[in-house]
Amino acid sequence: MVGFIRADLAALASYTPHTGGTSTEGVDRLDTNESPYDLPLELQAKLSSLYQHQLENNRYPDGSHQELKQAIATYVGQKITPDQISLGNGSDELIRSVLIATCVGGAGSVLVADPTFSMYEIIAKTLAIPVIKIPRRLEDFSVDLDAAAAVIANQQLPPLRVIFLVHPNSPTGNLLNSTELNWLYGLPSDILVVIDEAYFEYSQNSLVTAIAERPNWVILRTFSKAFRLAAHRLGYAIASPEFTTALEKVRLPYNLPSFSQTAALIALNHRQELLACIPEILAERQRLTQSLAQYPHFRLWSSSANFIYLCPQNPSLDLAQFTQNLKTRGTLIRHTAGGLRVTVGTPAENTRTLEHFEALINQNPY
Ligand SMILES: *Cc1c(COP(=O)(O)O)cnc(C)c1O
Predict the structure, then answer these.
(1) Ligand 1 centre and the CA of 119: distance in Å?
(2) Which protein residue's CA is at the shortest distance from atom 5 of ligand 1?
(3) Taking all residues of the chain, what is their mean pLDDT, rounded to a whole number?
(4) Which residue has a Cα nearest atom 11 of ligand 1?
(5) Is there a contact between 261 and 241 (Cβ–Cβ < 8 Å)?
(6) How far lies 289's CA from each of 58, 61, 153, 302, 329, in Å?
(7) Which CATH number fits domain 53-269: 3.90.1150.10, 3.40.50.720, 3.40.640.10, 3.80.10.10?
């Protein structure tokens, strides 16, 4: 072991992201919940032209993000002001900033309810922040609130400072229910509640109105999903001005490339056009769900996002092998947390997904 590297990093592996590029050539990429549609050609042309005629490659980008914050505040509505917005290089950077601002250096620990988005735990561990995990109920994937209350009553050290929840959750697709929300509303104000609304444009269900009344709440959103800009790495946090000030203190000064900021502005200006494919995605989600529900091999749950989650009825079904076999046939999905998460793609992609499921199920006596 090299003497100058933190000893606790030895136990961590670096994140192996989606490889993209040629390794997925000819394969439907339905494993990362991106939009199946790139920007329309007119917007691509507009971006190219801005790149050619306006972007100054030799200059630092706008590190204040003022114009984009204003545009986002207008999009979010609900009287949110630009000083209540902080921008990150993807929501991933914001998750890290939240953790730096609240927990680093032994100041706090965090709570997550599994199965959920893996980056909270991964990023916390890189900062040596303890992660407490509680389960969800299998009926509806709501949080086991008895377990959560026990964690809070436990008064561990370092103290619990942050709870991360996705609304709707990934990989399971469920929104927070009223019991969970009432519990969250009643939490002490020295615990930060992070509501990750990465799939808001699909669920159309936001908790942003809570921000006005609750200084211990923050909402995260991203341009990586319905806004079709995953390549540009842009996320935003909505919170009290006090908390966004803390987030701004800990971020890197030029965290957003000029081209990414331009792309986000264009996407917001053309949001009606970009978000117009959402009804199709929701109808296709319904088609996928109904078709897969015909097989007794899987249990399905209803989803409020652009993906569906299924678990095998037979616990001995080898999900890793099943996922690999699907990929060999041309459909890449995510094997996660004892289940399968399938992104809703284009109608043609979804038809192939169903064909590949059917072929595999007919071939093997699962
Ligand atoms: C996809 C996703 C994000 C987006 O992360 P970026 O870093 O903005 O690309 C954030 N949270 C959840 C739960 C997600 O599924």
Answers:
(1) 9
(2) 91
(3) 95
(4) 198
(5) no
(6) 50, 44, 40, 8, 20
(7) 3.40.640.10
Residue nearest to atom 7 of ligand 1 (CA): 90
C-beta 224 within 6 A of ligand 1 = yes
- Please give the average per-residue pLDDT across 98-105, as a whole number: 98
**Nearest by Cα to 218 from 200, 250, 241, 202:** 241
Span 111-141, pLDDT tens digits: 999 999 999 999 999 999 999 999 999 999 9
Structure tokens at 12: 């961590």
User: Ligand 1 in contact with 244 (CB < 6 A)?
Assistant: no
Q: In the chain, what are the domain boundaries? A: 20-35+276-363, 53-269
Q: What is the CATH number of domain 20-35+276-363?
A: 3.90.1150.10
Entry pTM: 0.96
Q: What is the DSSP string of 155-182?
A: T-SSPEEEEEEESS-TTT-PPP-HHHHH
- Cβ–ligand 1 distance for 226 under 6 Å, the answer no
Ligand 1 geometric centre to CA of 314 (Å): 31
| pLDDT at 21 exceeding the cut of 60 | no
**Which residue lies with its CA nearest to atom 1 of ligand 1?**
198
